Every structure is written in structure tokens, then in C-alpha cells.
């Protein structure tokens, strides 16, 4: 059972990161992993620190397997993954973020940095 603002527990979410080891080019294995995951039919959202997948359990695990295999082709690789069911919807996350943006607004005396959040408070 899921509440308002949350996805069905049938939808699995996965956040994964690829860590190429002993490789001079780390972009190629990471990009290969992201593209391979997308080719498995899951919605993919690349972020600064990790990549998000969502879909049925079978599709998410297939996408994760494809991502790891694609990264491995470039050399030694570590992958971390976190799974969730019953995740908040994008709309709920947007509402939460909007509330944070208002709290951290420079007009309220705080200065923000996109990578670090609130960095000083003048008020």
C-alpha cells in the first residue's frame, strides 16, 4: 500500500554509481554504463554523483547488470547500488525542493551555492 505522493511498491528505484579502478579515462566506462542501462528500457536520470533507474524489478536488475557489464569492458570496476520501493513521486520531491529553495533564498538573508547548499547567513 502506498500513500499520496508515493509510487507503487511494484516500481523499483535504484541509485547506482560506477567507480573505474586503475584507468586513465574514467568518463568512458561511466558513460558506457549509463547508456547500457538506458538501452534496457528503464527511465534513466544521470546525476552529478549517481545515476537513477526506475521500473519493474526485472527491468531494473537487467539495466543494472547491463551497466556493470558495459563498465567492466573498460577495465576493473566497482559498482554500488541502493534499491527502494514505494519511492516519493517527482511531484512530491519537487514540492520538498521548492520548500528548501524558499528557505535558502538570498532574499531571506542566506546565500546559496548549488553544490553546497546554504553557505552563509547574513540575517
Determine the CATH topology: Alpha-Beta Plaits
Class from helix and strand fractions: alpha+beta
N-to-C SSE string, H for helix and E for strand: EHEEHEHEE
Low-confidence stretches: 112-123
Rounded to an integer in angstroms, the radius of gyration calculated over CA atoms is 18 Å
Total strands: 6
Range of strand content: 25-35%
| Number of structural domains | 1
Lateral strand order in the biggest sheet: 2-3-1-4
Share of helix among residues? 25-40%
User: Main sheet, how many strands, which sense, barrel?
Assistant: 4 strands, antiparallel
Oligomer: single chain
Name the average pLDDT. Answer: 86
Shape: flat
User: What is the CATH class name?
Assistant: Alpha Beta
Write the CATH architecture name: 2-Layer Sandwich
Number of helices: 3
Amino acid at each position: 500500500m502506498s500513500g499520496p505522493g508515493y509510487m507503487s511498491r511494484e516500481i523499483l528505484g535504484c541509485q547506482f554509481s560506477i567507480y573505474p579502478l586503475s584507468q586513465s579515462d574514467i568518463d568512458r566506462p561511466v558513460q558506457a554504463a549509463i547508456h547500457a542501462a538506458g538501452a534496457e528500457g528503464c527511465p534513466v536520470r544521470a546525476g552529478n554523483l549517481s545515476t537513477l533507474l526506475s521500473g519493474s524489478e526485472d527491468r531494473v536488475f537487467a539495466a543494472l547488470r547491463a551497466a556493470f557489464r558495459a563498465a567492466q569492458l573498460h577495465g576493473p570496476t566497482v559498482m554500488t547500488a541502493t534499491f527502494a520501493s514505494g519511492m516519493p513521486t517527482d511531484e512530491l520531491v519537487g514540492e520538498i525542493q521548492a520548500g528548501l529553495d524558499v528557505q535558502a533564498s538570498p532574499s531571506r538573508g542566506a546565500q546559496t551555492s548549488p553544490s553546497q547548499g546554504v553557505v552563509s547567513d547574513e540575517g
